[in-house]
Write a structure and sequence with these properties.
single chain, alpha/beta, seven-stranded parallel beta sheet, 9 strands, globular
Length: 312
């Protein structure tokens, strides 16, 4: 059966060799505009730190810029790594973004720091790492976002500016396991499964089942909603698609070695001496990346998409 799947973009704002941050941001602005022209549903920005290969350290800043050059594509974080931020700051930032792009903002949240431990400590500064459990941070964020606190809460009466109704965006919980599925279901949020991080169709299907069975409707979502993040490479021919995977493999090799250089440019990767292209570290392992000239889903993945979710 042919199934129509809404497509979206998760952008890390890559910085190829020879490009500076200004060029990377300009390219991402054009990407967002092009995705909107093609009918893509969402443009999300990931949060990563201490990586020279990407410029996505402050998704909110990028999303604010994108909001001014697009008109209807939904904008969101994929996601805010909540342990790095005070919940009040997150609530205020995304309420303000909603004022810039009314009705088209998503707030994706993750519980990982998106970086190494030393950088995570530096992000919190003198305050140190956030010691609250993720669920407690999440509850505090929701309270700030909607301006409703439990009786006796120490922050009751604190306003998350700007004031106004309908500015706190729908929440999505990022997950690569069953834990995030349960959290998302419990608060009636959307679920964004990181299949590009955990490329297991079995784990993805289990996470979706856990989420759907435990889902509690909320003001944002009357029924469960699922997004799957997957890495896909497209090219006119299979050979060209295969070639485009090589710089990615080199980047992952560098990361495993603790190197944080710029993203390798695919036209220059042949100048770098690497083992045979089928060596396990010289190219991304399937099915984490799909080099293809047309959709070639891995076995079982069509079952994951068998029930497309309604659009917002």
């Amino acid at each position: 059966m042919s199934v129509s799947v809404p497509l979206s973009v998760l952008d890390l704002i890559p910085m190829p060799s020879g490009h500076d941050a200004a060029r990377a941001v300009h390219d991402s602005l054009q990407l967002a505009q092009h995705a909107e022209t093609l009918g893509y549903q969402r443009y999300w920005v990931a949060e990563h730190h201490n990586m020279a290969a990407v410029a996505s350290s402050v998704p909110l800043a990028m999303l604010a810029a994108v909001s001014q050059v697009t008109h209807h594509i939904r904008l969101g974080s994929g996601g805010v790594m909540l342990p790095n931020h005070a919940p009040l700051a997150v609530a205020e930032g995304y309420r303000l973004l909603s004022a810039l792009a009314p009705g088209r903002v998503d707030l994706g949240l993750g519980r990982a720091p998106g970086t190494d431990g030393r950088t995570a400590r530096a992000l919190r500064g003198a305050a140190g790492l956030m010691e609250q459990p993720f669920e407690a941070q999440l509850a505090e964020l929701i309270s700030f976002g909607h301006g409703i606190f439990p009786d006796g809460h120490p922050f009751d009466g604190t306003l998350a500016a700007p004031a106004g109704e309908g500015l706190f965006p729908p929440l999505w919980i990022l997950s690569s396991s069953g834990y995030g599925s349960r959290v998302a279901a419990g608060i009636g949020a959307g679920l964004a499964f990181a299949w590009h991080i955990n490329p297991s169709t079995q784990d993805a299907a289990l996470a979706a089942r856990i989420y759907r069975e435990a889902f509690r409707p909320s003001a944002s979502f009357a029924q469960p909603r699922v997004i799957v993040a997957a890495s896909v490479i497209c090219a006119p021919t299979q050979e060209e698609a295969d070639e485009l995977t090589l710089p990615l493999g080199l980047m992952f090799l560098r990361l495993r070695r603790g190197e944080t250089g710029p993203f390798p440019r695919w036209k220059k990767h042949r100048l770098i001496r690497i083992p045979h292209r089928n060596a396990p570290w010289s190219r991304p392992r399937a099915p984490e990346w799909w080099p293809a000239t047309r959709p070639q889903w891995p076995p079982g993945f069509t079952l994951w998409f068998a029930r497309p979710e309604p659009t917002n």
